[in-house]
Amino acid sequence: MPETDNLPPAPSGLPQPERRKRARWLPSLVWLIPIVAAVVGISLLVHTLASRGPEITVTFRSAEGLTPGKTAVRYKDVDIGLVKSVRLAHDRSHVLAIIDLTKDAESFAVADTRFWVVRPRFAASGVSGLETLLSGAYIGVDAGKSTESTREFKGLEAPPVVTSDSSGKQFVLRALDLGSLDIGSPVYYRACRWARWWPSSSIRTGATSRCACSSTSPMTGS
Q1: How far apart are alpha carbons 202 and 192 in whole angstroms?
Q2: How many domains does the chain have?
Q3: Given 109, 127, 159, which residue is the final one in a domain?
Q4: Is the confidence at residue 86, as pLDDT, over 50?
Q5: CA atoms within 13 A on the CB side of 166
């Protein structure tokens, strides 16, 4: 006789088994953290790329006052860029400042835009750049009006006397010797000061010296 015949009968009060659908799988909170972090990172990357302007290179004689990631580029006291890196040129004669301009400053990347380092300067004509003693040096900009775009510039070694948005003209005077002329030395006409020397364009050829003279006087129109 089979052994199953000896089993006791099943109690009559037990519930009948039912088939239930398996509950839908829900992601754990542990997986939500990296997903949210990835979404935030992608949004920040898109915002950074959208707000980034052109990258330009400005050459200077030395890197005095230039600090990568800190030195700002300013136009009318408004930051329009930041020095990304500074490196020495291959011939070691000058330095290259790599600058990231903002998106709004894209129009500054034209051929006649001028750059110079604003720092304390002491000359016979006076003192300038004292505000940088506390805030640090920065790169000043004179906006160009050219329609030719460029990404490489040669920085000025001294601030320009006449900027593109101010009145005045520039002249080139020739003399056998510059004598005691210094940055910003005044030029007088009938005992009236009407111009200053522009020393960064001083050129010596043989026995003749040339120096640009920038005038901001109304007399330049006569």
Answers
A1: 24
A2: 2
A3: 159
A4: yes
A5: 13
